Amino acid sequence: MSECVFTRTLKLDLPYARGADVLALQRRLAELNSAPSPADGVFGPQTDRAFRAWEARVGITPDGICNAAAWSKLFPAADATRDARWTRGLPLLLQDHSRFPGPCRWRLSADGIGIDGAAPSGSEGAPVTMQRIWDHFGTSVTSWSTRLGVPAELILATIATESGGDPNAIRFEPRYRSDETTPDQVSPGLMQTLISTARETLGNPGVDRSWLLCPDNAIQAGTACILQASGATGFDPPVVACCYNAGSVIENDSAANRWRMRQYPIGTGQHADRFVMWFNDAMRVLAPLPSPPPVSFTVRLRPGASS
Asked: Which residue of 113, 164, 248, 282 is most buried, as measured by CB atoms within 10 A?
């Protein structure tokens, strides 16, 4: 994940926020000479003072809260970097392709993912589930999609595939004992992110079950995970699905797995099949909107849009 990409609001709080984004903030504050700032990746009192001094210098009432608006002022080139990252591979996605040699090839169009020359296909009838997810969580999806530069359809499809849109969903892995001793064995919330993974991805050791059961937090964590893996996935929807599910992009040559990418249940293509169905439903739901999320395949593939 690029250290200059906004992933979360930073402020002085316990436990202190840690991570590459804090380090990037500290270095930027030092460059701007607002006040002495450490470069240890920990948002402590000294960083808080340096940030407040910068706020005062640029005419912001100092509150010590480094939100998306403040981040954009600190890193004005980050928005262009964000857009370039997710759009650079788009021409490849618009052609028939696969990740590993196998019986299945797919391509992206304005209607979704079509497989082996067939038209994109979603769920039967009206996209009721996806419409419900959009109605309930569309504001947060749009917010984190835009902040992190992850196409909204990928977030929506992940929510539908992982939890069906249930913000209280919790999945326990076989070795689960407790949240405290096995945070790598429990996935709470809309996007079913492991507590340990969310902590690591966000650089926030304070993430726990209750935090992830807040829909906006769950969407932030899941979207950050999709972004973190984008170097391996290229934002290619079936590849995103398998990487999110299996933890990385690994070849699986089972005859029952037409995608040839590892996913659970191992040896099947069921997870990617569901994800693509929901992804296509997301395209159906967003297409008629007068103002879809700005970071979305829907907007980029509309007639007259540049790709």
From this structure: 282
How many structural domains comprise the chain?
2
Domain's final residue, options 34, 57, 76: 76
Of 76, 101, 121, which marks where a domain is finished?
76
Residue 306 predicted with pLDDT over 90: no
The CATH number covering residue 86 comes to 1.10.530
Please, which residues have CB within 8 angstroms of residue 210's CB and are 6 or more apart in sequence?
none
Asked if the structure places residue 9 within a domain, the reply is: no
Single pTM value for the model:
0.81
For the stretch 125-147, pLDDT in tens is: 999 999 999 999 999 999 999 98
- Residues 148, 1: Cα–Cα separation, whole Å: 10
In angstroms, the CA 97 to CA 100 distance is: 9
Q: Would you say 185 and 173 are in contact if contact means Cβ atoms under 8 Å apart? A: yes
Query: CA 145, CA 135: separation in Å to the nearest integer?
Result: 16
CB burial class (10 A; 0-12, 13-18, 19+) of residue 276?
A: buried
Q: Residue 89: inside a domain, yes or no? A: yes
Residues whose CB falls within 8 Å of the CB of residue 301, separated by 6 or more in sequence, listed in order:
108, 109, 110, 307
What average pLDDT is seen over the chain?
93
